[in-house]
Amino acid sequence: MYRFLLIVFIGITGFNVLAQDSNLPTTKASPKNLTVRPERNPLIYMSTSTGINNNTGLIGFDFDIPVSKNISIDAGPGAGTWNYKIYAGVKYYLKSCQVGYAFGTGLTYCTGLYHDKHDLTTIYGNVEPIEYNKNPQTNMVFSVYKYWHLGKRQSRWYVQTGWTVPLTYGPKITQVTGITMSSRTMTSLSSYAPGGPIAAIGVSLGIH
Description:
Oligomer: single chain
Shape: elongated
Number of strands: 11
Structural class: mainly beta
Radius of gyration: 21 Å
Largest sheet: 8 strands, antiparallel, barrel
Strand content: over 45%
Order of helices and strands: HEEEEEEEEEEHE
Number of helices: 2
């Protein structure tokens, strides 16, 4: 899944860069005109990102669509420590053109993983094969973003920080078979579930 997402994004990125460069007007480079950007804002941004509690997991991509001067909606899939992840949210930009600081909120859903099996420590201190489920998780995201221009076509790179709050109650791990795992093992496995501080970085390609 990770390789598939990466290959899809690289392919689209390469196509978009080639298409954009072929449409750029021919100008003489001068100290006053080293970067040529179109007057119109992109119709859509395609982003890829990674980080801790990132919106789309350890690796994924999303589509960010401006709907007004200062507001955009975005959504996309990815994959991470809790299997596949889906995100949908909204952002408010302090400046126009989708650069500078932005505040965002949204929801993420992680599918979890059923019948995962590993050799784990039991309540008796032995290491035994244990089968367990990573239960699905829904979280609410509160974020602050900072965007900078990248390249000639209003593409961007950005950093994100914030907090993600679990909305799913109950145990994150459910043991299916085997001798009962130790509480320390259960805590360690549960710590990989989404939730807590956000620290992420990403790149957005403007598509006109």
